[in-house]
């Protein structure tokens, strides 16, 4: 970080907003009093500390509800996106198991949805994992075709966390309404730039994450439809009956306050941010493609989260590229968990060649990303990439006209 | 993950980066790994008598793989074929302080050395058989 003083921004430049976002200073400011001034339990009905906390939670609930156009009483606060998704899927499946034991989902879900589905299979449920096209999309027709008599839940990711593709939520919602099946949308990503309306989009359960929308970590929310139809869930835990009995436990008041403020800011700024981030990520992408060959944009070319670019730098291994651009904070494009070194299920589902999977980088821009940072990132990344191309035996072979697919590789 | 200074130095300033003529009969070439595994190492040696007088590498792989192959070229230079053949991956692990998840990079580097030596020897044997 030695060059920090010479640049008009902090390094490493943060381009990993799909992992987590910086907590907006306006959010932090709003949260502060609830740690040590108004520190009551929101369920304490007998004194001002509790009333103050309850009032703050009520306001936050209104703000979160307003973001997705539902009633405040339909918002359940959780510990984060993972818990929201778990509660939606386990909660609905176990509540409606007598009606049917079939679930429809996709092959590109986040693990906080995929793993509950896998676990439900072990509980005797049957799950259909819809394949995606090479852009990462499922169609509403696919969903309609997969729904059976015994289908009780459709669960789909909204903005994909690895490749950025945005699923046709509204069309899928319409199919679910038509067939009378509960629709869960995992909208942990995208609420800062996209507009979702639970009524217009036919959503029954909607998962949200505080720290992906410039709120704090450790807080999330789940929208649970109360009317037409009234959706019920089996809680994951037992306790004091908070959150209408769907989610027991003392409320995280500062977190909830922060999430409320974050939701309010997102609602105010999402349209402008969508335009701004689309332009910024285009600038970054154009810089890459103008100055380097053999690049591939993974995910849908247009129907995508505006700030997310997943690019394969063919013939360069992604981890080495990240090491080469230590002035940038980015993620490996395949969320290839470094513990396993296995390409992710998402990239596989898109049919991205295994060779390309290892070469992908995820750049995720956000509310605080500036044009100067994008230009710096392009320069730093290209310098590292060109250096690594010179080191790559694969690039050398391709330049010699060798088709890499014809080579019999020696490996264990 | 924090890498050792030595590893980072090899990554930032790779030694003996480049290629030699594969057709040259004094050159042995080893290519190991596979693109779908995320690692491909090409290591080449130039041999005079039974001594390795020069070495070059190109690597597609993570920073640890690049550093391991860079180090391997440095170590084989000036050694006899037998000495180079006996280099163990564990020595590379130790020198670069590779974390457990990166041990396979050192294994690959050892294989690349052996593969280059075997390539040189099979070329030499073929030439002897022809002559």
What is the CATH domain class of the largest domain in chain A? Alpha Beta
- Report mean pLDDT of chain A, rounded to a whole number: 95
Q: What's the name of the CATH homologous superfamily of the largest domain in chain A? A: Type I PLP-dependent aspartate aminotransferase-like (Major domain)
Number of strands of chain B: 3
How many DSSP helices of chain A? 13
Strand residue percentage of chain B: 15-25%
**Global Rg of chain A:** 22 Å
Strand order of the largest sheet of chain A: 2-8-7-6-5-3-4
- Assembly type of the chains comes to heterodimer
- How does the helix and strand content of chain B classify structurally? alpha+beta
Residue windows where pLDDT falls under 50 for at least 5 positions of chain A: none
Distance between the termini of chain A: 39 Å
Give a topology summary:
The complex is a heterodimer of chains A (412) and B (131).
Chain A (H helix, E strand, L loop, with lengths): L12 E2 L10 H7 L1 H4 L11 H21 L6 E4 L2 H15 L6 E5 L4 H12 L3 E5 L9 H7 L4 E7 L11 H11 L2 E5 L18 E5 L10 E5 L28 H39 L3 E4 L9 E6 L4 H7 L3 E2 L1 E2 L12 H5 L4 H4 L2 E5 L6 H21 L1 H7 L13
Parallel strand pairs in A: 1-11, 3-4, 3-5, 5-6, 6-7
Antiparallel strand pairs in A: 2-8, 7-8, 9-10, 10-13, 12-13
Helix pairs in contact in A: 1-8, 3-8, 4-5, 6-7, 8-12, 9-12
Chain B lengths: L4 H8 L14 E8 L4 E10 L2 E10 L2 H14 L4 H5 L3 H8 L6 H28 L1
Antiparallel strand pairs in B: 1-2, 2-3
Helix pairs in contact in B: 1-2, 2-5, 4-5
What keywords describe this structure?
heterodimer, A: about 400 residues, alpha/beta, Aspartate Aminotransferase, domain 1, Aspartate Aminotransferase, domain 2, 2 domains, seven-stranded mixed β-sheet, four-stranded antiparallel β-sheet, 13 helices, globular, B: about 130 residues, alpha+beta, three-stranded antiparallel β-sheet, 3 strands, about 50% helix
